[in-house]
Every structure is written in C-alpha cells, then in structure tokens.
Model the fold of this input.
Amino acid sequence: MTKRHVFVLEARKENLPSIAEFIGEHLAGQGFSEKEIFEVGLAVDEACSNIILHGYAEGEGQIEVELAVSPERVTVSLKDSGVPFNPLTVEPPDLCDDVDQRKVGGLGVFIIKKTMDSVGYEYRDGKNVLSITKNRSDRPGD
Amino acid sequence: MEKNPQIIRLSGRIDATTAPGMEKELFSGIEEGTRAMIIDLEAVDYMSSAGLRVLLSALKKMKSVGGEVRLSSLQPHVREVFEMTGFSRLFTICADIDDAQTSF
Done:
C-alpha cells in the first residue's frame, strides 16, 4: 500500500527546514534507515533550493511536495510553476582535488543524483515536475 | 611556529537560508587578518551544497592570502556529504579542535 502526503509551501528559503521536517515526520517509523531519511531530506532540500533561488524570484510562487511511501520505496514529487528547468541536463561537476581548480557550487543536482536511486523530470501543464525515488535498502524477505 | 588560530564554531543546520550568515562570519575573520582558522563543525548536524559552497569559497580566499583552514569534528551526515562530493580531499579534516590546533 502506498501512503501519500502533500505539503504546499511558499517558495522561500526560510521554509527549507519545514520541508525537511515534513519528510522526516512521514518517513520516521516507516522502516527507512536514518541515513536514508537524511538523504531524501537532503535531495529534496537541494531541489527546493534550486527552485527558490533560480526558478522563482523569491517569494513569488509555491512548491508542492508530494510524498508517496510504499514498503519498497519513497518517491517525492516536486512541482513548481517557475522558469522551466530540467535539472537532468546539468553538466556533472568536476570533482578535482585541487582547491584552486575546483569550481565553487554546482553540487546540488549532483547530490540529488548521487543519493537517489532514480530521478525523473517532465514539464507538464505549465509546471516543472521533478520526481526522485529512494529504494528501501533492507527489505525483509528479499 | 605559534599561529594562534581563530576558532569559529558553527552550529545547527547549514542550508541555503543559513549559509550566507556563515559566509559573512568566515570572510570577516579572514578580512580581519586571521591566517589560521579552525572551523569547528561539532554542532552542525546538517549541511547542504549551500554550506559546501561557502566553505570552499572561504578556503580559496584563505589560500589566496597565504593562510590555512582546518575543519574539526565532522558529524556523520556532514561527513557523508563531504565524501560524496570529494570535499574530504579538499580540506584538512581533524578529529577535534585539539587536533586541529596542533596541526598548524
């Protein structure tokens, strides 16, 4: 059975902690490890930060966060009406070890891809829809 | 050589909201002449890429003036983000403040 939870909020930086709380609240006690819950919260934070900083002029729009939790996985869908932007087209960062060569920034999308099992994007009905999925690691009976 | 490092203790959640304040704190230290800085992360339980961006900017700035930065007491989630992004190879990371102090 999949449980769905929806949270709509104003796209403002100061709302980032409440998104993390929303994720934590609905994943706690559902069999996800603490690390998995942290990673989902981080990926959602990165995606929402991009929407807030680049998608909307601050305070101008909303983000809809939908959580679908099943025994196997959690999928978070983020919808916004900001500038159309497909994060999957972002070039991966160069993770070189040289401080002078290393570019500042550009890590948000990389972190989302690195922590999640799948990431999908579509532009639908005038909205960016980003869906990120994390599979539960230790499912009993696997 | 005695460098008398400046210790900056950060705390809480470092995300796009709190990173600008942290940037101010780190940069003003460098502007005021600090050339040995310990950024203690013992009380930081969360850091997103916004925090990484500021830490790397501070490290670059410090390097450009011939100074050094140490990070201390990384918590598990922060360490995970550092490892995933290669930041653990960009910074000198110490177990705690004492360790960081003797490392200069």
